């Protein structure tokens, strides 16, 4: 059975915002293959906190392939094999969310969390974060680079196998009393485009929807304009602020989506209310697609 370590970095708080992936394959007691790719997330919205962690900027991924394109060559191994991840619930969540967002079928997945492995084999008062365990084991890597993190995760599993004198990861899990988690997959769904507005919803506007334009006040008092533009995935709200010019769904757009007129400068609050109703304010606030 294929055994591979997986690590994602995300652009923001959403699990479907992967901006980098790393993979490392294990065979015959060693890492035999490594892959690392940058990913263009569905929304070019990068949270400052995430950038501080991994250092990836919108400009770094603007011309990179999307999640489906990057992950397609590896879905066979991921679906048939055993996945290792350090804090596996996060990385498996990103994988499933990314595939669902891309409209792809989610394969059945089997995975083992190396945080749980480390807590049983290499416990320490300082904890079992990836960097801390790697440092204790002398594993040299560049933390928060997805490819490097996947490699470190694989090396932690290999070190635990050597420590417990077992032949493979399955035997390691059995020796530690850690069941391999199995997640049932799902069929492909419709591909979703972030921030787009359906034709049915647009029909609710009494006037030409493409003429919708809102003036918004920025945090420093600057005046920005949010307008409805035709995009390949459907009509989309775009803003003239810096974030909007980089293709991000900025705070001005988010405010309009939930009907917040606090910073509205133009005299068309009625259109904001209708827009929020169309987009489903509750759904947007909850972060669901």
From TrEMBL:
Its EC number is 2.7.7.7. GO terms for cellular component: cytosol. It is an enzyme of class 2 (transferase). InterPro entries: Ribonucl_H, RNaseH-like_sf, RNaseH_sf, Znf_SWIM. One of its GO terms (molecular function) is 3'-5' exonuclease activity. PROSITE patterns: ZF_SWIM. Residues 224-261 form the SWIM-type domain. Keywords: Metal-binding, Nucleotidyltransferase, Transferase, Zinc, Zinc-finger. PANTHER family: DNA POLYMERASE III SUBUNIT EPSILON, EXONUCLEASE. This is DNA polymerase III, epsilon subunit. It comes from Methylobacterium oryzae CBMB20.
